[in-house]
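Q: What does the assembly look like in three dimensions?
Context provided by user:
Components: two
Sequences:
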Amino acid sequence: MRNIRMIVEYDGTKYRGWQRQTATDMTIQGKLEHVISEMVGKKTEIVGSGRTDAGAHAYGQVANFHTKSTLSIKEMYQYINQYLPQDIVVKELKEAGPRFHSRYNVKGKKYVYRIWNESTASVFHRKHSYHVPQALNLELMQEAAAKLVGTYDFLPFSSVKKSEKTTVRTIESITIEKKDAFVEITIVGDGFLYNMVRIITGTLIEIGSKKKKPTYIDEIFSVGKRQNAGETVPSQGLFLIEVYYN
Amino acid sequence: MRNIRMIVEYDGTKYRGWQRQTATDMTIQGKLEHVISEMVGKKTEIVGSGRTDAGAHAYGQVANFHTKSTLSIKEMYQYINQYLPQDIVVKELKEAGPRFHSRYNVKGKKYVYRIWNESTASVFHRKHSYHVPQALNLELMQEAAAKLVGTYDFLPFSSVKKSEKTTVRTIESITIEKKDAFVEITIVGDGFLYNMVRIITGTLIEIGSKKKKPTYIDEIFSVGKRQNAGETVPSQGLFLIEVYYN
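A: Here is the predicted structure of the complete assembly.
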């Protein structure tokens, strides 16, 4: 069996997220499996690096599938991109070693949350960013973000209910940059809990707009409950940028 | 009567262009007039700086309207942006002198044509750019563009049929820049004939992809016929950036 590894870019606006749930719902995984199954002439499942939320986007989702197809890499690349809808593109496709697994082998991920920080909304970026009209103070946000870098129990920054599994994660870096009218929050970590990037962003926005102080982060960690953190900002500003493997 | 001047940004994807044609068609002018008429309680016509094509976009279309309304500038700004569809935004609104006329007073315009110049299409920019997969040589395009700067009869670079009016126009500058994966062609001139920016762009793409040489421009001018120039590239890459007045 060949093991084929892909990098997938998608505009998630119309989709219920990455993960297929029923046979016919609008998911990225479902669309890819449909096209790949037609291509190889056999029902084929793909494995992604992990879920992405309904409405969230990706520049670099990673997925793989096993096949006995004798099509060349170039033929597969062309077929898939020809038959995928225009809001999903396979940017890279190659042979992987037999043991490569898109989910089990993940070492970390990079997400960006993109804020449109102008008084007027942008007609061009409204589906790929979140509009925050009040001016954000980046220094305050950076001071707060520094408190999130490290290994902590991120349960209060997630929508995880009580769970048997650990909610300890490591954030390796958070950078907050102004790029034209955008404020971009880039987070690299070894793993992310459900809604973690969106709740961290909502919390940092409260600090950047001076509703809360940077020490708000310390309070959230010490109380340890979800309801103390900021709101879950909309998925339309969230992008999975890269998945890291060894 | 007050004379109100606006700067309008729009994503033209869903529209049949700026100019209202029937009472109910999807045009930017029609949408604005509908909201403004409701606001002032009286059927109100607006004047734009000129048409934009079906599917083309604007960062800085200028329009004005006359009204006896006593609403403040701030109230108008808020009302209009609240009731406009999300793909149209009034970025600026102010009182103009009584004689200001958005179309008659135009001194020049700046357009950008945006090309996505990567082998794979972009899922995020596909509605606001034109995908050219083959690599473009910017030096050749710049050499050709320099031949278009000046005062010439641009009839062969337009879709104008025989006309009583002059087809002589002045292009003040053309710059061609690489910005990440985009190639952006920026054209400033005193006026533009129908399809002129899109045909100039189509011609420059033929030169940048080495199907033609920069001297192709000289040939088109000397023969003087539309069918000798490049194709009319799609409107989705075209942006009206700014309108100049004295």
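Follow-up: Chain B has a mean pLDDT of 95.
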